[in-house]
């Protein structure tokens, strides 16, 4: 009888361990995955300096899934000024990898696909690989990056290169952060080309500040400018306000 009880206890513990192992593995796998997202309202949807909402309010949102290895996928969407080519909605889907390549230097690279699901005329969708490097410089974070869209029908058979630098910093002991951006576009999406000035490349820039009301809710304001002719509700300089809720 004593031997059989020991055997029963051993088999019970073994079965419990085998049952617990998959659950533990699932918990560990789940802990490696992070899901984030946000919803936002902006007074004007500006893309590389140009308004894609006709100077009007836009509703935006995103969701992303990242793994502890650095790989991630996600989607971002915004309302647009309704047009036959682009429709009234932009959906950007992307995938990539980010991580430290050397101590203090972070790489981020992947592929972004701009989709216009309710456009009715032609093909507006665009593929665009991107890459950037960022590092802390004193109290600030500096990023330099580039995005290149090869020749595609949606770009009129041309290609497009965008290079940029970002600077951001939090103001110590306050809920306020400040930022600045400078970008340069050469190719099918040049602001000078799109505003009818020339076929040359052009710059865009913005400076702004964000006030974090809570760790989830923030208010932002930025001043946006771009090269090319100043066209009201498209390429004119503008002050853009943002309210964002993260989750």
Sheet with most strands: strand arrangement: 1-4-5-6-7-8-9-10-11-12-13-14
Helix content: 10-25%
Low-confidence stretches: 1-21
Q: What percentage of the residues does DSSP assign to strands (E)?
A: over 45%
The total count of helices amounts to 2
Structure write-up:
- There is one protein chain.
- The protein has 247 residues and is mostly beta strands.
- The protein is built from two helices and 14 strands; from the N terminus they run H-E-E-E-E-E-E-E-E-E-E-E-H-E-E-E.
- The strands form two sheets. Strands 1-4-5-6-7-8-9-10-11-12-13-14 form a twelve-stranded antiparallel barrel. A two-stranded antiparallel sheet has the order 2-3.
- A hairpin with a 2-residue loop joins strand 2 and strand 3.
- The chain is globular and about 45 Å long.
- The N terminus is likely disordered.
What keyword list fits this structure?
14% helix, mainly beta, twelve-stranded antiparallel beta barrel, 247 residues
């Amino acid at each position: 009888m004593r031997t059989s009880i020991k055997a029963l206890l051993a088999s019970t513990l073994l079965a419990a361990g085998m049952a617990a192992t998959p659950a533990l593995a699932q918990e560990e796998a789940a802990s490696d995955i992070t899901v984030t997202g946000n919803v936002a309202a902006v007074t004007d949807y500006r893309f590389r300096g140009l308004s894609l909402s006709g100077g009007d309010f836009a509703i935006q949102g995103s969701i992303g899934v990242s793994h502890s290895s650095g790989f991630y996928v996600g989607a971002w969407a915004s309302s647009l000024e309704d047009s036959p080519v682009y429709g009234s909605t932009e959906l950007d889907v992307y995938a990539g990898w980010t991580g430290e390549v050397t101590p203090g230097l972070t790489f981020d690279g992947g592929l972004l696909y701009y989709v216009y699901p309710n456009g009715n005329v032609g093909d507006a969708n665009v593929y665009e690989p991107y890459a950037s490097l960022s590092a802390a410089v004193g109290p600030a974070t500096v990023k330099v990056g580039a995005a290149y869209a090869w020749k595609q029908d949606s770009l009129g058979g041309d290609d497009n290169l965008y290079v940029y630098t970002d600077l951001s910093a939090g103001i110590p002991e306050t809920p306020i952060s400040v930022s600045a951006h400078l970008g340069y576009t050469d190719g099918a999406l040049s602001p000078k080309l799109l505003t009818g000035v020339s076929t040359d490349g052009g710059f865009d820039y913005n400076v702004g500040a964000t006030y974090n009301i809570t760790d989830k809710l923030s208010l932002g304001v930025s001043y946006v400018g771009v090269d090319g002719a100043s066209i009201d509700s498209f390429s004119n300089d503008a002050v853009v306000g943002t309210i964002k809720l993260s989750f």
